[in-house]
Specification:
- 2 copies of one chain form a homodimer.
- By secondary structure, chain A is mostly helical.
- Chain A has one domain: Tetracycline Repressor, domain 2 (Orthogonal Bundle), CATH 1.10.357.
- In chain A, 76% of the residues lie in helices and 0% in strands.
- In chain A, helix 1 packs across helix 5, helix 6 runs antiparallel to helix 11 and helix 9 runs antiparallel to helix 11.
- Chain A starts with a helix and ends with a helix.
- The interface between A and B is medium-sized, with 35 and 35 residues.
- Chain A binds a DNA duplex through helix 4.
Chain lengths: 227, 227
DNA sequence: GTCTATACATAGATAGAC
DNA sequence: GTCTATCTATGTATAGAC
């Protein structure tokens, strides 16, 4: 698997996202023409993510968003009923696409050792292709309303569950050491998240996606793999 | 080293903090009587950290802070000249104490292998004893003014440098494998941060400080240590 | 030193013209 | 569908009494 191939998959999926958003929010989105609606949703989301890579969602005003997206404040409110709804909408959709792509990728793996490598690599590739999205989802999760916060946590735990299952499989097949599975999955997740949370650091140091992924795989295999 | 001993060290330092804040902000803090000033600074900081464990600093209004601290809005402005200054003040002081305690602890270690274990354990203990502080410093760093943001990044890199130096020492003494040192330090930092960023998770799962620290040490030693 | 009252700015959201 | 103009709420910060 090469990063560029991966990027294409994500871009295709990215086009679907706005379609899904539209479907799932037919009640609050007032625009009738589908094509126009999707185009503008993409503009709005891109603008939001661009602004929020520099300041927080709270700090972004609707006026900011209007300037960045090139749409008027009035027009924006045809696509969501409140600023909070915009936050929820972006987050929910981001989680969905991420989860889908990740599951698809891992299904290709043969045996726990390969699945584990594939899971790590896919996640890092995915968060690279969707960096602003991942960063936004992580950092703004706490500003969600309570019920959506719950969904965000479930999603986080579900991703972790993918790794828990792979590791358990490996232990049963005697290819992995019998370590604390839950903690192992947790620290894997921590290392995966660092890639998109500390982008500035890795970029400055010219660490490539593959450098990082290979290193994480090395750490995880040193801990788990029976030689 | 036991966690409870560690907590005492931190608590002592915590008393110093407000004294330092007072000294370093003599121009903007209008209260003359030292004792009163320190007492109220502690009230203000505690209230801020308590509120900001639930919502963002931006989302916290001065009215919120007034209610939580039991001081009037007018009185609060005798301790800082703007809300942003309060943010800077808390962050700067948090960084300083954390850095000092960590350096003190590591100095006690003999040889790179022990230093590495000590560094990991101290950091996790420290972030446990000062959890709200660490969380706040991490999550609100992006809302700092540009120049303070730079200081926060420097501080982050300095902590990492501690681990880089230890690992380099270990490689030279042939007790550690010759891995990519910078990446090794980065993922160690990532695992350390997870402890205070995902507190809810570890608490729910009843993972203790020592469980976590021991596991991280296990992962790191599996990767680095030559048997 | 601390309070109450208030000025002033900015933000979210909507109404109605085009 | 999109724009401009505007209403209203909320928030920061200060002035002046106690």
């Amino acid at each position: 698997m090469i990063y560029n191939d991966f990027k294409k998959i994500v871009n295709i999926s990215k086009e679907e996202i706005s379609g899904q958003i539209l479907e799932q929010n037919r009640d609050s989105i007032k625009i009738k023409k589908e094509k126009r609606a999707i185009e503008n949703l993409i503009r709005i989301i891109d603008a939001t993510l661009a602004i929020c890579s520099k300041k927080s969602f709270q700090a972004m005003s609707i006026r900011d968003l209007s300037a960045e997206s090139g749409m008027s404040r009035g027009a924006l409110y045809s696509y969501f009923t409140s600023k909070e709804e915009l936050l929820v909408l972006i987050q929910a959709q981001g989680r969905e696409i991420a989860n889908r792509v990740l599951c698809d990728q891992i299904a290709h793996g043969n045996g726990p050792a390969e699945k584990l490598r594939l899971g790590i690599k896919s996640h890092i590739y995915l968060s690279e292709a969707m960096q602003t999205w991942f960063y936004f989802t992580y950092i703004e999760a706490r500003n969600l309303p309570k019920d959506e916060q719950k969904r965000a946590i479930e999603s986080e735990l579900q991703t972790e569950k993918i790794f828990i299952d792979i590791i358990n499989e490996g232990i049963q097949e005697k290819v992995f050491r019998d370590e604390n599975v839950v903690l192992a999955a947790s620290v894997i997740k921590a290392m995966l998240q660092d890639w998109y949370l500390k982008r500035w650091k890795y970029q400055n140091r010219k660490v490539s996606v593959d450098d990082y992924a290979d290193f994480v795989i090395n750490v995880v295999e040193s801990t788990l793999l029976i030689k």
